[in-house]
Specification:
Blueprint lengths: L2 H20 L4 H10 L5 H10 L8 E4 L9 H6 L4 E6 L2 H10 L6 E5 L12 E7 L8 H10 L1 E12 L5 H14 L9 H11 L2 E7 L2 E7 L1
Parallel strand pairs: 1-2, 1-4, 2-3, 4-5
Antiparallel strand pairs: 5-7, 6-7
The protein binds S-adenosylmethionine (SAM).
Length: 219
């Protein structure tokens, strides 16, 4: 099975539990996060990323991958003066996001691949990538494409898994999550990631919580 089919199948099969696992909606998901992810709370990481976007933001933003919009729904609805484009590879995830954000004229949806974005250079003021890079198969292309579509002075805001911080998390990612297709290797270490970001962006601000990195870069 190709990487793309594996990813689509993985997210298709997990769509009914995705939101609850990520948001720690039940005791099992809280135990999973506590045991395998040193307690790193995705809700908290998402809140932090969203706080980087002012409530009166009126520019253009790409959300890639939107997933089911479980973390972003409320904020995206409030940003009615902005123009938001939500892209995802999985029709199932995108379909759920569309239903969640229905009735919002300032939001559009595109099924596509982050490695080949269907947008002109310098189209967006903000590119948001929440929990995306650990799922993307061609990470070099994804870094290049998200940079290409960003305006000069625009912000790249993201969070994702990095390797080498916690043995238990690394084991889970390589032995289970990558085999199923929710994650796709190779994964950068903190040092490798910083090299990539520093080559692309004029300002790089980041911090690490467990095995998750949150970043905010200016082009
Ligand atoms: C872990 S989910 C994150 C979704 C959402 N941002 C969140 O935080 O809940 C990863 C998403 O990446 C999408 N994805 C994987 N490879 C992709 C690609 N090449 N281009 C666009 N989206 C992709 C998957 O379909 C999935 O919806």
């Amino acid at each position: 099975m190709s990487n793309k089919d594996k990813i689509k199948t993985a997210y298709h099969d997990s769509i009914s539990i995705y939101d609850s696992v990520l948001t720690q909606g039940n005791i099992l998901s809280r135990m999973y996060i506590s045991f395998f992810w040193s307690g790193t709370d995705d809700n908290r990481v998402a809140e932090e990323l969203l706080s980087y976007i002012p409530d009166d933001f009126a520019g253009s933003m790409l959300d890639v991958p939107v997933g089911t919009a479980v973390f972003t729904e409320k904020k995206w609805r409030r940003l009615s003066a902005a123009k938001i484009t939500c892209l995802d590879y999985s029709e199932d995830m995108l379909g759920k996001a569309k239903r969640r954000l229905s009735g919002c004229d300032h939001i559009s949806f595109v099924q596509g691949d982050v490695g080949s974005l269907p947008f002109e250079d310098a189209s967006f003021d903000i590119v948001m990538s929440m929990n995306g890079f650990h799922a993307f198969p061609k990470k070099k292309k994804a870094f290049k494409e998200t940079w290409r579509v960003l305006k000069k002075g625009g912000q790249f805001i993201a969070c994702f898994y990095i390797k080498g911080r916690n043995k238990r998390t690394d084991w889970l990612v390589s032995r289970i999550l990558s085999k199923k297709g929710w994650f796709t290797p190779p994964f950068p270490t903190e040092e490798q990631l910083l090299k990539v970001l520093n080559r692309l962006y004029s300002e790089v601000d980041y911090h690490v919580d467990g095995s998750m990195v949150s970043i905010r870069c200016v082009k």
